[in-house]
Design goal:
Strand content: over 45%
Radius of gyration: 12 Å
Strand order of the largest sheet: 1-2-3-6-5-4
CATH superfamily: predicted glycosyltransferase like domains
Structural class: mainly beta
Helix content: under 10%
Low-confidence stretches: none
Distance between the termini: 16 Å
CATH class: Mainly Beta
Number of domains: 1
CATH architecture: Beta Barrel
Order of helices and strands: EEEEEE
Length: 88
C-alpha cells in the first residue's frame, strides 16, 4: 500500500466513521474512505496529526466491539492518509 499503483489487495470503497488512536491521550474520529485486507484510507482535513511512519491504531465505529487494529501511516496527501495494518 505504499504506492498508488502497487497495491497488494483490492480496495473497497466504503464510507464509515472510524476512531483513530494517535496516542493513548489523543483519540480522533474521521471518515473511512476505503479499505482492503492490508489497510485503509482515512479522510482527514488536518493531516498534521500524523507523520509518515507513525504507529497508530484504528477502529471502525460501525460495529459494536470492533477490533482495534495496530497500523502504520504509509502515505499522507492533501485529503487524508493511508495506513497499513501491522498485525504481525
Amino acid at each position: 500500500m505504499s504506492e498508488l499503483n502497487n497495491r497488494r489487495h483490492e480496495r473497497v470503497k466504503h464510507r464509515a466513521k472510524i476512531r483513530v488512536y494517535i496516542s493513548p491521550e489523543q483519540k480522533l474520529i474521521y471518515e473511512l474512505q476505503d479499505f482492503s485486507e492490508s489497510g485503509l484510507y482515512v479522510k482527514c482535513e488536518d493531516t498534521s496529526v500524523v507523520k509518515l511512519g507513525d504507529i497508530i491504531e484504528v477502529q471502525t465505529l460501525e460495529l459494536d466491539d470492533a477490533p482495534i487494529l495496530p497500523s502504520k501511516v504509509v502515505r499522507i496527501d492533501k485529503i487524508g492518509f493511508a495506513v497499513e495494518f501491522t498485525l504481525d
